[in-house]
Amino acid sequence: MESKIGKCKAFSSEREKRRYIPHLAEFFFRPDSDWSKPEAQRLYENASHGLDALKIDHVYYEDCISGMSRIPDETINLIVADPPFGIDFDGKSSVYNRDETLVVENYKEVHESYDEFTRSWAKQVERILKPDGSVYIFSGWTNLESVLRAVREASLHTLNHIVWHYNFGVFTKRRFVTSHYHILLLVKDSKNYFFNKVEHYPKDVWIVRRKYRFGEAKNGTKLPLDVVAKCIDYSSKPGDLVLDPFMGNGTTAVACKANFRHFIGFEINKELRRIIELELDRVQIGESYQPYGERLPSAQELASQHPRAYQEYIRLKSNPGSAFDSHTSIPTKTSGDENE
Ligand SMILES: C[S@@+](CC[C@H](N)C(=O)[O-])C[C@H]1O[C@@H](n2cnc3c(N)ncnc32)[C@H](O)[C@@H]1O
C-alpha cells in the first residue's frame, strides 16, 4: 500500500507538472485547420457552389438587395459587409484631408430610413448564409443601433463585437477623435459554425493601420486588405465562397483571389468598375496564401519574449513522459475563455 507521504509526493509532483506558466501554451499552439499551398489550390480549383444563375468570382454592378434575392438559400460560406454609413458621406469633405480629384464620384449613401435599408439587406444575408457560415459587419458607432436591431430581427447570433482601431480619425475640437469601427462577427447557429483559430490568443481589438495610397483614384472608404484578410482567415476555408454586398473598391474580392477563396459581390456605383477590375488584375490567384502554421512565431522568437515559458517548453519537450502530448493538454489561463 502506498504511504501517505508517497501519495503526497506524487500529488505535489503532479501539481508541479500542471502549474500555470504564462505563455507556455503559445509554444505548443497549432491552428485548428491548416492547408499546404498545393492543398489550398486544389480546394480552390475543385470547389463548386451551386450558383447556377450567377457567376462566381464576379462583381455585379447593381443594388445588393435585389442582387442577393437571386442567390439560392444557404449557399454562401462567409459574408463581409461594409455598408454605407448613412451620414451623408461623400469622402470629399476637407476634414478627410484628401485630394478630392482622386475620390470616385457617385458614392451611394442611404437616403431612405437607415433602419429599413439595414433590415432589408440583413434579411437577405441570413437567408443566403450556409448553416455553419459567418458574417462580419462593419459599422461606425452612429448607426450601430440600427445594425444591432436588424441582425437580431434576422435571428443572427453575435459571437464577437470586435473593435478595429484605425489611424485616420478626423480632427476634433470639443470631443474625442473617433478612431475605431465596430465589426460584428455573427453566425446563424451558435452551436455549429466554422471558426479556424489561427492564432493562440486572437483578441477582439484589431490594430490595423490603413496604408495611404498616394495618387490613386478610389472610393473614399477603402478598408485595409489586412482587416478583410483576417475575417477570411478565421471564418473560411480555401475554396469557400465569400460574398460582399457593398464591394466599394473591391477589397474583399482582392483578399479572396489572393487567398484561394471564391467571391461574389455587388456594388451599386458603376464608376467603381474600372477600379475593381484594375485591383483584381494586379493580383494573382493565391499569391498571399501562406499556411497558418508558417505564420506563427518560432519557438526561438517566442523565447526572447517569454524566457521562463521557453525553459519550461524545453523541459517538457525533452521529457516525453511528461503530463502532455499536445498543445491541448498544456495548462492555460486566458481571461474571457469562460464563455467558450
Ligand atoms: C463603405 S463602402 C464599402 C467599401 C469597401 N469595403 C472597400 O474596402 O472598398 C460602401 C459601398 O456600398 C455601395 N452601396 C451603397 N448602397 C448600395 C446598395 N444598395 N447595393 C450595393 N452597393 C451599395 C457604395 O457605393 C459604396 O461603394
In short:
With 340 residues, the chain is α/β, with parallel strands linked by helices.
List the helices and strands and how they pair.
Blueprint: H1 4-18, H2 24-28, H3 37-46, E1 58-60, H4 64-68, E2 76-81, H5 114-128, E3 129-139, H6 144-153, E4 157-165, E5 180-187, E6 205-207, H7 225-235, E7 241-244, H8 251-258, E8 262-266, H9 273-281, H10 292-295, H11 299-305, H12 307-317
Parallel strand pairs: 1-8, 2-3, 2-7, 4-6, 7-8
Antiparallel strand pairs: 3-5, 4-5
The structure holds S-adenosylmethionine.
S-adenosylmethionine (SAM) binds next to helix 4.
Structure description:
This protein has one domain (37-292): Rossmann fold. 32% of the residues lie in helices and 14% in strands. The two termini are 42 Å apart. With 340 residues, it is an alpha/beta fold. It has twelve helices and eight strands. It is globular, with a radius of gyration of 23 Å. 30% of the residues are buried. The longest helix has 15 residues, at 4-18. It has helices at 4-18, 24-28, 37-46, 64-68, 114-128, 144-153, 225-235, 251-258, 273-281, 292-295, 299-305, 307-317, and strands at 58-60, 76-81, 129-139, 157-165, 180-187, 205-207, 241-244, 262-266. Mean pLDDT is 86; it is low at 90-99 and 325-340. Helix 5 packs across helix 6 and helix 7 crosses helix 8 (251-258). The chain has an eight-stranded mixed β-sheet, sandwiched between helices. The structure holds S-adenosylmethionine.
Mean pLDDT reading: 86
Instruction: Report on the biggest sheet.
Output: 8 strands, mixed
Series of H and E elements: HHHEHEHEHEEEHEHEHHHH
* Count of individual helical segments: 12
Low-pLDDT stretches: 90-99, 325-340
Small molecules (ligands, ions, cofactors) in the structure? S-adenosylmethionine
Q: Which overall shape is indicated by the principal axes computed on the Cα atoms?
A: globular
> Whole-Å distance between the termini?
42 Å
Considering the protein shown, what is the CATH homologous superfamily? Vaccinia Virus protein VP39
CATH class: Alpha Beta
How is the largest sheet built, in terms of strand order? 1-8-7-2-3-5-4-6
**What is the C-alpha radius of gyration, as a whole number of Å?**
23 Å
**What count of structural domains?**
1
CATH architectural grouping: 3-Layer(aba) Sandwich
Percent in helix: 25-40%
User: What do we call the CATH topology?
Assistant: Rossmann fold
How much strand? 5-15%
Strand tally is 8
Indicate the structural class. Answer: alpha/beta
